[in-house]
Amino acid sequence: MNHLAKDRAPETPPMRDDAAARFDIANRLFLRLYQASNLMHKTGTRAVSRFGATTQQWAVLGALSRPAVRDRGMAVKELIAFLMVSRQNLTAVLDRLEGAGLVERVRAADGDGRLRHVRLTPAGDRVWSEMLVNIRRYYEDALADFSTEECVQLFRLLDRLRHALSRMTGPEGE
Amino acid sequence: MNHLAKDRAPETPPMRDDAAARFDIANRLFLRLYQASNLMHKTGTRAVSRFGATTQQWAVLGALSRPAVRDRGMAVKELIAFLMVSRQNLTAVLDRLEGAGLVERVRAADGDGRLRHVRLTPAGDRVWSEMLVNIRRYYEDALADFSTEECVQLFRLLDRLRHALSRMTGPEGE
DNA sequence: GCCGATAAGGCAAGATATTGATGAATCACC
DNA sequence: GGTGATTCATCAATATCTTGCCTTATCGGC
Fold first, then answer.
1. pLDDT class for B15, splitting at 50, 70, 90?
2. Which residues of chain B are within 8 Å of residue A158 when distances are taken between CB atoms?
């Protein structure tokens, strides 16, 4: 990795080195994303393991616990868009959560009879409150070395990356 | 978020709101990490699908193709530390790669007879070169809206997060 | 030469993730 | 009222990913 003649380039920077440097940093970036995501699932599942939960179930419960949707629940399609997973996968996760009694599928009270709204059960609400204690501690541990400003920075960059990647799944995957 | 204990000194920022804001941003951050990682696997696997590969196999081949280890290969233990996956999982991925003839397990030429070095086969080397064309295009597409400076920034933040999370797996997980 | 530690593989169980194909109920439109 | 699109579910195949436990081979120290 020789990126030497970098700081003193009064004219046009050499195209070849620039492309090579970008590939190199992209490679490292995606490797870190891969590693960080592996570790997130590993440590996250451990953090909520005493509830028999996993990071995916955590994500679903977290989505359903948001004040804006706590009462009405979310349609499966909305959850798919929110979590960016496949329908087949989400169905399996929902099955497990429903089996554990944390979540229920109800027909939408309003118009559309095709929609099934997924909603937290009272038990799910209770378990989520308990999990929240562990989750707060998990966030504190994981981000202890990050200033709030840096957290925001990382969030924004990840958000843009997510946006770019979701465009690659096809124009409808927005 | 409702700001509760606001009756404190106007000089110091209210602790409660600060903690709530940090939790909120942490929550969004990890959701974005979850989403971005899902999308990375989805779009990445698609990018190398015509080689019958997946993102994990891509990661392994990428690790083995680095100039520093191209000839001697990497011990399984090194690969585990590098990719941060479990041994049981890596074994399965290596089995598939070995079955496809892209990778071989050889006894370490040097001292330790316990070590099996995983190395690219000539066929694996060839396939990797072809995959590289797709991978370069993938990186360009995914990071088109990012300046090189922003890529470095995101890499550094992810690297620190990876480090923090790996500390949480236990002191040996370094 | 014995023995604990290390490196790797085998086997099992369970959860997550993708794609693809199929089916059933419902809605919107004509 | 029929038709096509939408929403959700199901079955199947395949690949990851984790934990836990057991086995084998080897290394290093005593």
1. low
2. 29, 32-33, 36, 154
A123: CB partners within 8 A, 6+ apart: A101, A102
Count contacts between A and B (CB, < 8 Å).
176
Q: Decide: A104 and A116 in contact? Cβ < 8 Å.
A: no
Write down the pLDDT at residue B20. Answer: 82
Best residue in B24, B34, B152 to probe A by mutation, most A CBs within 10 Å? B34
Provide long-range contacts, Cβ within 8 A and 24+ apart, for B127-132: B127/B51, B127/B61, B127/B102, B128/B61, B128/B62, B128/B65, B128/B102, B130/B51, B131/B48, B131/B51, B131/B53, B131/B58, B131/B61
Q: What is the CATH number of domain B50-125?
A: 1.10.10.10
pLDDT in tens, B127-153: 999 999 999 999 999 999 999 999 999
This prediction has a pTM of 0.86
CA B88, CA A17: separation in Å to the nearest integer? 39
Tens of pLDDT along B94-119? Answer: 999 999 999 999 887 667 778 889 99
CB contact under 8 A, A39 and B154: no
State mean pLDDT over B159-168.
92
Its CATH class, for the domain covering A36-142, is: mainly alpha
Which parts of chain A register pLDDT below 50? 1, 3-9, 173-174
Q: Which of B166, B162, B137, B141 is nearest to B33 (CA)?
A: B162
Residue B16 confidence (pLDDT) above 60:
yes
Our measurement of the distance from residue A154's CA atom to the centroid of its chain's CA atoms, rounded to an integer in Å, reads 13
- Rounded distance between C-alpha atoms, residue A160 and residue B32, angstroms: 9
CA distance B48 to B27: 32
